Amino acid sequence: MGNQIPMFPENASTIAGQVDLVYLYLNLVCAVFAIGVVIAIVYFAIRYRRNPTHTAIQQVEGSHLLEIAWSVIPLILMMTMFGWGAWLYVHAVTPPKGAMDIYVVGKQWMWKVQHPTGQREINDLHVPVSTPVRLTITSEDVIHSYYIPSFRMKRDAVPGRYSQAWFEATKPGTYHIFCAEFCGTKHSQMIGKVHVLSAQDYANWLAGNLSGDTAEEAGRKLFEANRCNTCHHEQSGARGPNLAGVFGSQVQLKDGSTVLANEEFIRESILRPQAKIVAGFEPVMPTYEGQLSEEQVLQLVAYIKTLKGPAKEAK
Amino acid sequence: MSANDNTHEEHHVVPLRHYFGVFFALIFLTFATVWTAKMDLGVFNTLVALTIATVKALLVILIFMHVKYSPKLVQTMVGASVLWLLIMFLFTWSDFATRGWLFH
Amino acid sequence: MSAATTDTQKPSYLMDGTTLKSWLLTVDHKRIGILYLIAITVFFAVGGLFAVGIRAELFTPKGDVFDSDTYNKVFTLHGVVMIFFFLIPSIPATLGNFLLPIMIGTRDVAFPKINLLSWYIYMIGGSLGVLLIFMGGLDTGWTLYPPFSSTYSNTNVALAAAAVFISGFSSILTGLNFMVTVHKMRAPGMTWFRLPLFVWGLYSTALIMLLGTPVVAVTVLAMFLERVFHIGIFDPATGGDPVLFQHMFWFYSHPAVYIMILPGMGVISEVIACFSRKRVFGYPFVAMSSLGIAIIGFLVWGHHMYTSGQSAYVNIVFSILTYIVAVPSAIKVFNWTATMYKGSVSMDTPMVYAMCFMGLFLIGGLTGLFCANLGLDIHIHDTYFIVAHFHYVMVGSAMFAYLAGLHFWFPKMFGKMYPEGPAKLSAIVIFVGFNLTFFPQFILGYMGMPRRYHYYPEEWQVLNVLSSGGAMTLSAGLLLGGANITWALIAGKKAPANPWMAKGLEWEISSPPITANFEKIPVVTEEAYAYPSQIPSPAHH
Amino acid sequence: MQQHSHAGHAGGVRLAHHFDDLKQQHESAQLGMWAFLLTEVMFFGGLFLAYLIYRNLYPEAFLLASNQLNVTLGGINTAVLIFSSLTMALAIRSAQTGQGRIPQIAWLVLTVMFGVAFLVIKYFEYKAKWDHGMLPGPGFMAAGGHPAELFGEHVAGARIFFSIYFAMTGLHAFHMIVGIGIMAWMMISSWKGYFTPSNYDGLEMSGLYWHFVDLVWIFLFPMLYLLGAHVHTGAH
User: Residue A109, preceding bond cis, omega within 30 degrees?
Assistant: First the structure.
């Protein structure tokens, strides 16, 4: 505890400063209005206080001009708030291309993190400074929310689907991670630390924490163990679509629509293969719902993302 | 249908033939909806079914429930309930419909 | 338009039958209002005790009063009791029930027996709520989000769902009664734009109760079925979508915030007009802004779900609509301020409360703009910033308005005056305690302290101690105010028919009113708040 | 529901003390009843919303599951409810035109009979679903169970369909039961001669309620039963 009460959390991501700026702008506008109104109230209460010498009251019906003024002016100001906030939001939810992928799974009451290079950690998160990091977040049980105040970043971990968030840390250091959505007994202890490391420290950390398989590698093994390649291969007549290069492409579906092959789509296709059938294929794939853990699905997704190929015909 | 005139609408006696007309229309539309449902019309199956259901509902509301002869306030309330349902449907549905969209 | 004398042969509603049965089977809207008042005060005390528990725990960063499970139950029950059993019925069911028929010049609400029924339904729901405290409690937060509530919680979610479901019908029936009463029971000459603004507030509230409450009822019902029979509607483990629950829940629960605040805004309009002796500035705008809030309020629920995984596009739509709903609230504040201009302002207790309300509502409303802001809310959502914001609106505004109204109409309801000194003192203590409790929470929230946290990092202890200290001050102020009112009930001086020289039909009848309200149904010939330009007599009480 | 019957009662006896005249009383009852129906619309609306969302999420599963419902029985029930709505309307009309209490009661008896017929048919439908293990619950998705075999891949979506099916039709049936109770009450009031051409509020409000319950079914039938009628899977 310092000798003065801090008002802002650490400013440690590219977004944080901009959020603080919006916050200050709103504080400024609101303070002007609030102080203005309070001064008016107090002034009127004193100036027009009831006393025996002052018995005349001037009845004022109202004023259309004033009504319009104090509707339209606040509305315009609020639209600037909205516009700025929405602009910032679009920026804050759109990860830059080529961001580093990290997978986060919430579960009562811990955060399990999987790095692309295979490192896994619980509650802690090690990231390099000045590198955009894209988080793919899900939950194994109830709804959680992955919250890093110093990055001004928060995203619910919803069971059964992927949420996405990103940040780019600007300052090496250690910051809080909280669960922000109430999730049961130890909700307030579902916390951790994000360690922002310099490039060199991060490389050292990676080297010191070598684990068996990278996420892709683990995914490849799962892919083979589940014999996915019996159907998903490049030869003609394959029972399932060729997965090479599928990630990020627009996939033509049986019902005529197209869909972007993102993480969510691949996850759905593994767990509920019948939901969206790719054009030219029969709905023959069995479901893997309940047979793969959320982490394993994430590994498969990571592996499928690495499959490069022509896949131009998917257009 | 002068809805402002409350004394006029009160105790409006609907002729018997209207009741029976509505009744036969409802029975007919029930057959029609079953009949069309058994044909494969693609997306139009839903559209046809909903249209027929709406027509049936309107017949019941306007004639059986006397809304056609009721004060404007009652008619407004019927409209409001439909409007509020649509608000709830539209906003919620638009979330589900646009979740996959991302900014690029 | 002469004021009725107090010594008519007819007994006041308080004396018209003194047996317990005459109270429990009454269909008199005034007595039902009193029944609600008693029940609501009890629930407020229960909810307040839970609040004291929360703040006592948060004096220190580590759990030392409760274990985590108990703490989770305490804050959940605080929310459930305060929202469903205090705030939602508070002003409409007590002051509204008592005053609505009188203010529009009629003998009773349109359906008196339904009115009594709604009290019994409320009592059944409330009793289940009390039972819940002793039978397993509830630890889901008042929002009851699945799959935690439907599958994972070990507490008595089914009983809680039943309590909420049942009390919802009480709210629906009250809304139905008010809506029909305002439409069909107004005295001759009482046109829509002569209605007191409190009636406009109640009418708008009634619309929300009718349109919104059934949706939360069916949502809770579906969650109940899922919990008890595992049918699978929201649970992702069976293919359901928990975010759908959030949509359905907030479709009601956001407008429910306006159920809590709109009647309060009506009370404030009455009080400010009376103690400034002025017609409310821009009356039609204030009236219409209530309706505007009620209607637009239904289009903004998604702002509770910015981080839930809701579509980014829908987030943007909800954000702009949320900013728009702030305009009618702004209109009200400006008009109240302008009402005092060139008036004759008297600082009696109700006015003290009303002025506190204005200050607190300013903060509560303006911080709403922070929460509506997409970029900012990603950071402050589910933190203490939100907690502080909605307490400024629900306690700072709704509860202050309730206390303002209670002190304003107390002489009318009970025919007694309360001592001004202690009443004003308690208002000041409550105001100071309230700000001390909740202002530090804005800072805590922006620092990143998530809500519903039992343990918190040590660096936030100073602000939390301030907040907890404030809560104790706030409790002391409420106890003082409550004791003062109780004393006045027993030994207060007899109140005249119109102690504040106020305008309005309720001040033209005796204090307390007779059972039929009026000797003869009045004919209204003038606008609301037709205060004269001269102060009639110096004989202010 | 109760407030409805209360309104009927107040109207049936005569002018209640707090109303100025019968017209005010009638208009209040009518408005109150419609306000109540508005809340009913929103109440069912929540489940309609769930239906809309999940039908879009699981279109195939909903077709398959809908196919399991018996269109013939559902259709007959639709007709039964239309009959009951007609008899209800005629009961009110007989009060309106002052035909005395016997025709009123006769039409009400017919209405109740149709209502009971509806519930009996519904019971057999429920029973069939119960026997086939289609009651949503943990057993629904069990491997080797009837639903798991029938719906295969789509068992999760089908379970949601049946959850919504039972919730909506169950709620509807509950409203029917309450409606039959109200009709019994109306018969008693009618027997006591409460309903005259100048004041038959109770009967009119009961009628609005009954028609509303019919209205809900008008939408439930195509949404639940007819959705998959054009898909031929061989089952049933």
Answer: yes
Residues of chain C neighbouring B92 (CB-CB closer than 8 A): 244, 247-248, 251
B64 closest CB neighbour out of D45, D52, D211: D211
Range of the domain at A299: 215-314
C314 to B98: CB separation less than 8 angstroms, yes or no: yes
ipTM of the shown complex:
0.90
Q: Is residue A3 part of a domain?
A: no
CATH code: domain of residue A15: 2.60.40.420
Is B99 close to C215, i.e. CB distance below 8 A? no
**pLDDT tens across A232-265, in order?**
877 777 778 888 878 878 888 877 778 888 888 8
* Best residue in A89, A253, A260, A266 for a mutation probing chain B (most B CBs within 10 Å): A260
Separation CA A137–CA A298 (nearest Å): 10
C192 has a chain B CB within 8 A of its CB: no
Query: H-type helices in C112-156, by residue range?
Result: 112-134
Q: What CA–CA distance (Å, rounded) separates C295 from C325?
A: 9
Provide, as residue numbers in chain C, all residues whose Cβ is less than 8 Å from the Cβ of D52: none
Q: Which residues contact D57 (CB under 8 A, 6 or more apart)?
A: A275, B96, C239, C241, D157
Domains, in order of start, for chain D:
2-226 (1.20.120.80)
Select from A164, A195, A212 the last residue of a domain. Answer: A212
Cα separation, D176 vs C102, in Å, equals 38
- Taking the CA of residue A271 and the nearest CA in chain D, the distance in Å comes to 10
Please check whether residues A201 and A221 belong to one and the same domain: no
* pLDDT, position A265: 82
Please give the C-alpha separations between residue C531 and each of B39, C94, C286, C396, D72, in angstroms, as whole numbers: 72, 27, 18, 29, 70
Give the nearest partner residue to B101 out of C183, C251, C311, using CB atoms: C311
Which among D7, D54, D167 is the nearest to C111, CB-wise? D7
pLDDT value at C463 more than 80 = yes
Residue A2 lies inside a defined structural domain of this protein = no
Taking an 8 Å cut-off on Cβ atoms, the answer to whether B65 and D208 are in contact is yes
User: CA-CA distance, C56 to A284, in Å (whole number)?
Assistant: 60
Q: C-chain residues within 8 Å CB-CB of D40?
A: 214
Note whether B90 contacts C: Cβ–Cβ < 8 A. Answer: no
CATH number for the domain whose boundaries are C27-508: 1.20.210.10
Residue A215 pLDDT more than 80? no
SS3 label, residue A243: coil
In the prediction, which pLDDT does C510 show?
A: 93
Q: Does the beta-carbon distance from C248 to D46 stay under 8 Å? A: yes
Identify all chain C residues contacting B6, using CB atoms and an 8 Å cutoff.
none
Count of C-beta atoms within a 10 Å radius of residue A208: 8
Domain match, A151 and A94 both: yes
Does the structure show a pLDDT above 80 at B9?
Answer: no
Residues A12 and A120 in one domain: yes
User: How far is it, in rounded angstroms, from Cα C102 to Cα A241?
Assistant: 74
Give contacts of D154 with chain A, Cβ < 8 Å.
Answer: 274
Contact of A191 with A177, CB cutoff 8 Å: yes
> pLDDT tens digits for C386-419?
999 999 999 999 999 999 999 999 999 999 999 9
Q: Which residue of B has its CA nearest to A260?
A: B100
Phi, psi at A159, each rounded to 5°: -60, 140
Q: In degrees rounded to 5, what are phi and psi of residue C383?
A: -110, 180
- Determine the pLDDT at residue A312: 43
- pTM (two decimals): 0.90
Residue A272 above 90 pLDDT?
no
Region of C416 on the Ramachandran plot (φ > 0 left; ψ -120 to 50 alpha; else beta)? beta
pLDDT digits (tens, 9 = 90+) for D16-46: 888 888 888 999 999 999 999 999 999 999 9
pLDDT value at C486 more than 60: yes
